[in-house]
Specification:
The chain has 434 residues and is mostly helical. It contains 20 helices and no strands. GO terms for molecular function: DNA-binding transcription factor activity; transcription cis-regulatory region binding.
Length: 434
């Protein structure tokens, strides 16, 4: 028996939780026995795959700010690529200019973002009243490298030691060095200085990346919350983990754990979750995938399932079934074609820059942001040698592989609906590797 990819080396805690919700736990013992036998036969531990970090890609022509991906209709209606165009050899282009910060479209706004510590509500207000454009969400791989380089340049220019840099990052009196943080924020245009501040402090924190939580740590965390309340900085000092890690561990795994169910969801649970989410979103004219407060949802379910369990179950499973009139849709070659050309239309330098929530459109909206990201990774890994390629090289190959619009499958009898204009992929991932 093969382990699911999410449970293999490199899987995140969230990937593991997603898999365990539908995993037949009775098979785990056989899996462990097989692995132990194999390790014993080899007279040593099984080595994991080595990791190669691809060089950063060259920047494509600067896209328009706030650009949206192409619509599925436009993609399916585009002229097919000519045969001689498909035969063109992909040229490898590596250019360090990818790390050069983009020229801000509005210098005044760029200065504002890099110097003023604006709250989330103030940023939203300025976006409405002044047209301020700023980035939210996860920092991309290129932004990570830009920040790393900016900190190193600041250190070298001012002849500072690593210890001194850490003192600036984590000053005991919580005073912020304005000149330092403004300079670092300038390296990642359109990121508010407050977002850069919190991101850098989290990513470089000495208590970060502590690995799996041990049962003894869970007990210390529960006791700390009982005595200190949900004051996470104080709890962090007691537990020896980052404040954000303590908060997430407690909320997602420990709160109400005595009455929390695990494993496979029952039909009644699925129906209850669907009712709660649709009442909170669809019935109020909100987005059922992106406008959900999962803590409230979990509470409405009596905390029998945690906020993270509810979110994963909805975004990965129930949302697409609800949108498809109660029938579970299946990913198709046509979906893969649309996804590739939507990603291409964004013209990003690296796929970590993609906001997956903006990809769905009116006529192609069954798949959640997380599903689209996972499907993209499967497509990406179908390219031979993808580990050492830049995003642009992978994109060029996938555009050629997915140049032709797949034919729409004919419906046979009254079989299960697979999706809007979809064909079934026999093994779940075969559609991407074609």
């Amino acid at each position: 028996m093969l382990l699911p990819p999410e449970l293999s080396l490199g899987g995140s805690a969230e990937d593991i939780l997603r898999t365990l919700q539908d995993l037949d736990l009775s098979k785990i013992a056989n899996v462990l026995k097989t692995l132990n036998d194999a390790a014993a036969a080899a007279n040593g531990p099984v080595a994991g795959p080595s990791t190669f970090i691809a060089p950063l890609p060259p920047p494509p022509p600067a896209p328009a700010r706030g650009k949206r991906p192409a619509t599925s209709d436009a993609i399916l209606g585009t002229p097919q690529m000519k045969a001689n165009e498909r035969a063109k050899k992909v040229q490898r282009k590596i250019d360090s200019a990818a790390l050069v910060p983009d020229t801000p479209p509005n210098p005044e706004h760029a200065t504002l973002l890099a110097t003023k510590w604006l709250s989330t509500s103030k940023l939203a207000e300025l976006a409405q009243t002044e047209g301020l454009v700023y980035k939210k969400g996860k920092f991309s791989a290129i932004e990570e490298e830009q920040i790393k380089n900016a900190i190193e340049q600041y250190r070298a220019k001012n002849e500072l030691s690593e210890d001194t840099i850490n003192e600036i990052l984590y000053s005991k009196d919580n005073k912020r060095d304005q000149s330092f943080w403004s300079e670092i924020a300038m390296a990642v245009p359109q990121r508010p200085i407050v977002a850069v501040y919190h991101h850098v402090r989290r990513s470089r924190h000495p208590l970060g990346a502590r690995g799996k939580w041990m049962p003894s740590e869970d007990e210390v965390l529960i006791q700390a919350v009982s005595e200190l309340g949900q004051h996470w900085e104080k709890v962090s000092a007691r537990v020896g983990r980052m404040a954000s890690d303590c908060r997430d561990r407690y909320r997602n795994h420990l709160a109400d754990r005595d009455k929390r169910a695990t494993g496979h969801w029952t039909k009644d649970e699925e129906q209850e979750l669907t009712r709660i989410v649709t009442e909170m979103t669809v019935d109020q004219g909100k987005d059922m995938d992106n406008d959900v407060f999962w803590g409230v949802v979990a509470a409405k379910m009596g905390n029998r399932r945690g906020r993270q369990q509810c979110r994963i179950k909805w975004t990965d499973s129930l949302s697409k079934t609800y949108k498809n009139d109660g029938q579970k849709p299946r990913w198709s070659q046509r979906d893969a074609h649309i996804l590739v050309h939507k990603v291409a239309s964004l013209n990003v330098r690296d796929d970590t820059e993609i906001d997956w929530k903006i990809l769905p459109d009116e006529n192609w909206n069954l798949w959640s942001a997380h599903v689209l990201q996972r499907r993209w990774m499967t497509l990406k890994k179908s390219v031979r040698g993808w580990e050492v390629m830049t995003h642009q090289e992978i994109m060029d190959i996938l555009r050629l592989k997915k140049a032709d619009v797949p034919r729409q499958a004919e419906k046979k009898g009254k079989g299960k609906v697979t999706s809007a204009e979809m064909v079934a992929d026999e093994d779940g991932a075969a559609a991407e590797s074609a």
